[in-house]
Structure of Proteasome assembly chaperone, gankyrin:
Amino acid sequence: MYASLGQALQENCGIEYVQKTITEDRNTLNASDADKRTPLHWACSTGKVDVVEYLLKQPDIKVDEKDEAGWTPLMVAICNKAIPDSLIETIMERSDVNIEMTTRGGQTCLHYASGKGRLPIVRKLCERSPGLIRTRDLQGQQSLHRAAAVGHPNVVKYLLSQKCPLNASDSFGFTALHFALAEGHTDIAIDLIKSGADTLRTDKEGHTALDVCMDRSIRQEFIDTCKQEGLDI
């Protein structure tokens, strides 16, 4: 016997168990555990698409509940590649979902979609709420910082096309260019420079983006490419 529906989902119960439990006790539908996670949080976290779809059809489902860390089910779904874009869009389009909510760390759905490289979701979020592109988390990072750091060139290009702040610095003075080179994503760094990134901008310790590229081979490759393409660094 499971202590809660959330625990049952964590332990890989099937849709039949979920349906039976909720039918017998409607209170289990939105019941939260010690981490304030609801069954919808756990269904998204464990990638149980059929359970997510079933829960969303319940008229009294609470879709925008936050867990202890401030994550909504939508945020959890975005970070799980097992949840398809189409289902995430279904959640986003609900009238009872606020796509601008933030976690305790200040991250939005756009931060997570950008960091996970989910371009279709990034597009939808920007279309519905253009201001998200400028939202900073508690470390001062915007979505462009996340995409550049993790290495998602298509997301970076899209965000740039939406006029996101190109040279914005986070709390440590890192720009998207700093993140790209620090993580060895030279292709993204080139795109940023071509878009007008300031190569001389320094972080709070006085380091340029090139300074924080610690891998010598990657650094040299980047320098050579810039020379070949006539880019001033």
Q: What stands out?
A: The domain at 1-84 is CATH 1.25.40.20 (Serine Threonine Protein Phosphatase 5, Tetratricopeptide repeat). The chain has a mean pLDDT of 96.
